[in-house]
Design brief:
This protein is α/β, with parallel strands linked by helices and 546 residues long. The chain is globular, with a radius of gyration of 24 Å. The strands form 5 sheets. An 8-stranded parallel β-sheet has the order 12-11-10-6-3-2-14-13. Strands 1-15-16-17-22-19 form a 6-stranded antiparallel β-sheet. Strands 7-9-8 form a 3-stranded antiparallel β-sheet, with no helix packed on it. It is built from 15 helices and 22 strands. Bound molecules: alpha-D-glucopyranose (GLC). Alpha-D-glucopyranose binds next to loops.
Length: 546
Amino acid sequence: MISTATPPQTTTTDDDWWRSAVVYQVYVRSFADSDGDGTGDLQGIRQRLPYLRDLGVDALWLTPFYTSPMIDGGYDVADYRDVDPMFGTLADFDAMITDAHAHGLRIIVDLVPNHTSSAHHWFTAALAAGPGSPERARYLFADGQGTHGELPPNDWESIFGGPAWTRTADGQWYLHLFDSSQPDLNWRHPEVRSEFEDVLRFWLDRGVDGFRVDVAHGMIKAEGLPDVGFSTMTTGQRQVELLGKGRLPYFDQDEVHEIYRAWRPILDSYPGGRMAVAEAWAETPQRLARYIGPDELHQAFSFDFLDATWSADSFRKVIDTALAEATVVGAPTTWVLSNHDKQRHVTRYGDGVEGLRRARAASLLMLALPGCAYLYQGEELGLPEVLDLPDELRQDPAFLRTGESRDGCRVPIPWDGELAPYGFGPAGSELSWLPAPALWRALSVTAQTGVPGSTLELYRTALRIRHVHPALALDADGVTWQESEPGVLAFSRSAGATVLTCVVNMSGAPVLIDGYGQPLVASDELTEQGSGRLLPIDAAVWLERR
Ligand code: GLC
């Protein structure tokens, strides 16, 4: 044994469910379509709840299903208190959450506070009311530079490409860190703060168990809206590169924490452990950790884990840093490998057979770590990114501006059947808002169910063990790294005399895994060598010693 990182000590209660939960991200538009219009919906989720219960996850995070023009897949919200007709009704939501709770599944909803849709009534009122009006004060309107105000107020760029400012008919400009249909709110305005506190209560009253906070690091912009200095940068240094790597005047400003300190008492005033997870990018893990703790949010995704390259050193470094930060702030670590904004991890790790092998191994690694893990729909099927979608079908607003598109990880889930979209809709329905590739027939839920060695059965087995194994429980010991060959990650967790060791082979040659006890689950078939066992390359195994 060579080093130990201990997770925060906690007293486990039901309110602590989120500390070690496995949360399944449902990209609502692409999960299950109950009415055959080619778009997933709340009734579709409701019908598939037994699948999610049997998979063994603890909670669902639903991406936005609110009233929206859907220019950014629903992250452009026009009414925070209603369901878009494309996804159903509030009554459908109530029925879905009631059933989810009956299945023991908690529900986390997305909250999009940085910006509204330009179709939100606040924004249409702001445009109509004109410069200097109280209606404009809720957003970030400013006069332009240049003799006639014809230049944007500063040099900020949209994350989706192009300037972050759009000029209105009366000559003023408004800020949008994302698409021009997503105007940024002014979070120094008291009405904005009270509105979102009310939105939190609206969904808490409907029974939600938590919130995923979109762009949680972006709501406060530095006073005076200073230039970044983009004009002096090379293309390689531009904004997307800078995200999380440097202090931008619109990200991770200290004042943003006041907002979360106001939200936390609201969450705590409801029973049952209502929580919030930040989608936040910060310069360092230390700054990211400032979003979590007893008086702010409960979790912040560890995107460094998602970004780790396929090497033992890279993963070891990220894991150690994340665990150490969690210890300092007394909050658990939040692991994630894929989501609706990132290329699926099968493809990131190499695609094809190699990518799938590595993705399966990485998932076993993630599920053995202390803390909470987020799965993205379809990763349990080993779905790859769809790289060859025709351009005219791509809907990501970033695509037109940058050529980068997130549509390839948003293709509807294959459930069963011989013909696309493989059971995404009701029997006989041929519609799906993005087409599923023919290869997905063999990856459908039905095709993998009960098939030994399938990715779906691997996830089911791992989740079942994670649920019952004392060494993976919330109150088990933290991570104890074991001496291992270069390129191999090996760590143990224990509860009393019961020890579970996870070994991941990133070394390029099979490795002996003797001495750790009996294998419980492996991402690939183990082979025998003499009296010993070998873990193949790009594979992971959990072994148990009692
Ligand atoms: C977050 C979401 C992403 C969205 C953006 C703007 O990063 O995950 O999908 O485009 O915010 O709301």
